Amino acid sequence: MTQVNNPFTIKKLAVGAGILAAAVFCANLLFSPSTVTQLDAQALSSITTEGTFKTIQGDGSRTIHVFLSTECSFCRKIEPELDQLRNVTVYRHILPGSTESGRLSALNVWFAQNPVHAWKSVASGQRTSPTKCDGSVIEKNLELAKRLGLTMTPSIVYEDGHVSAGMLSSGEIADRVNKAKKS
């Protein structure tokens, strides 16, 4: 019996299937619309500014809460969009991420002398300085995110309880901020 020389080995098929699965996942992530939900009054009132760091742009008359992770590439990409908003106070709730390095990075941001600067450094791809500290604040942020039903980052909670999850442009965020203010 002769053996047929088949170029399609199991290993090549597995690699091809892995590439195909990754491509389908990325296409779904890139082309699916961001998740949108609405919080009720009780859930909205449970959001505090404790455990946040904030920036005020313009007169800061409108407010959004942004839930972020140092491991999330869209969280880093949305930062320049947030910087373009006008007359908005942005409260950032940093989450611990899903790995130990993500948790440590979040702690490094939170306990930095200037958390806003530290977060913007992380968002631009720089590493944070290591720190040793109590991580209860970021764990409370995670508990809050779970209680609110937030399942992805970045998630933005607007003044009227509307929630947008995923990557948004500054124009989309500003439109939603304006709608929330009119409500």
If you had to describe this structure to a student in words, what would you say it looks like?
By secondary structure, the chain is of the alpha+beta class. It has a single domain, classed as 3-Layer(aba) Sandwich (Glutaredoxin), CATH 3.40.30. Helix content is 46%, strand content 18%. It has 7 helices and 6 strands; from the N terminus they run αβαββαβαααββα. The chain has helices at 10-31, 41-45, 73-83, 100-110, 115-123, 136-148, 170-182, and strands at 36-38, 52-57, 62-69, 88-95, 155-158, 162-165. Strands 1-6-5-3-4-2 form a 6-stranded mixed β-sheet, sandwiched between helices. The longest helix has 22 residues, at 10-31. The chain starts with 9 loop residues before the first helix and ends with a helix.
